[in-house]
Amino acid sequence: MQESNGSQVLTYETAGVSIDAGEEIVRRIKPLVRKTFNKNVLTDIGGFGGLYDARFPEMKHPVLVSSTDGVGTKIKVAIASKRYDTVGQDLVNHCVNDILVCGAKPLFFLDYFATGKLNVDSGTDIISGFVTACQENGCALIGGETAEMPGMYTGDDFDLAGTIVGVVERDDLLSRENVQAGDILIGLPSVGLHTNGFSLARIALVEQISNDERPKSLGGESVVDALLKVHRSYLHPIQNLLTKFSPQDDIHALSHITGGGIVGNTSRVLSDDLKLDIDWTAWTRLPIFDLIQQYGNVPEDDMRRTFNLGIGLIIIASASKAEEIVNALKAMDEKPIIMGSLSKA
Fold first, then answer.
1. 194/146 same-domain check
2. How far apart are the first and last CA of the chain?
3. Sheet holding 274-278, edge to edge
4. Mean of the pLDDT values across residues 283-299?
5. DSSP labels for 61-112?
6. Which residue segment(s) compose the domain that 60 sits in?
7. pLDDT in tens, 231-290
8. Which of left, alpha, beta for 82 (phi over 0: left; psi -120 to 50: alpha)?
9. Do 161 and 200 lie in a common domain?
10. pLDDT (0 to 100) of residue 1
11. Could you tell me how far CA 236 lies from the centroid of its own chain?
């Protein structure tokens, strides 16, 4: 649009930001987000801040545990395949696991969704993913930010980040203090890459992603399907375990296997005088990892430093209780793997 003198009229819309699109997303997601609310949520979506009642009368000494994370370049696979309903779930579950390893259960979650051009349909799908995972984890989605930033992002590009807050009784906190030589490593399987290693995986499998190939080794599943499998939440089996076993005497620590792999992440809960003795043959890797290594010619050391290789969470347990813990997990239809132990460095 031009004025009579020939100069262009500049508005927020012509600059690339649609207030109407933002308002439409809020209109669509409000009834979805409200499904995650509980009696502690004191505000509706749309305020300047989310309010959560922080009274915990059933707890003696509640400790708040928080974490912030993102989904990384897994988003690129979602964009390429135009499938937006999983990455929101990835983000919530990743954050849940990060506070879970401290022994905490989630209370509430806040999201940040930034894009160059706001698409109401795909944006709603992404936020619906937040809602799905929050409901599954018993976590309230009490707020967030949807930012349209032309010039920062191009095309269909977007990014996600999330912040979670949970609570744990101080006496039930999990930390490295109780970890000792002789402890047993019990692995819980992942469903795939979860949300780490995609910068390497996308380059290694670029042709297979673009052609939506279905290698025999994946049993008819496409490469895209395997890559977009939702990052698993371990909340329910671990919370069940923590009601049956002492979070300090029996279960000494937990490790969420994200960027840095099994060794890098589990070392974070070890003192300097301990080392990991991992039996790398104790489990069968998921086929997607073999494909990445094969097509990308990735060295074994780099595979171990980059990916979870089929183990999404590790329980560091007292040797005297390891068998009981394994049996308890099997009773929950889990498939625990005794994958090694700890020894003196």
1. no
2. 72
3. 251-256, 311-317, 184-189, 337-344, 274-278
4. 96
5. SEEEEEEEEE-TTHHHHHHHHT--SSHHHHHHHHHHHHHHTTTPEEEEEEEE
6. 19-172
7. 999 999 999 999 999 988 999 999 999 999 999 999 999 999 999 999 999 999 999 999
8. left
9. no
10. 46
11. 15
Distance of alpha carbon 83 from alpha carbon 76, whole angstroms: 10
Average pLDDT, the chain: 93
pTM beyond 0.90 = yes
- Distances from the Cα of 76 to the Cαs of 36, 158, 177, 192, 283, in angstroms? 28, 9, 39, 16, 30
In a domain, 1, yes or no: no
Half-sphere exposure (CA, 13 Å, Cβ side) for 14? 6
Tokens of 285: 């890797």
Both structure tokens of 130: 């937040």
pLDDT tens for 61-109 read 999 999 999 999 999 999 999 999 999 999 999 999 999 999 999 999 9
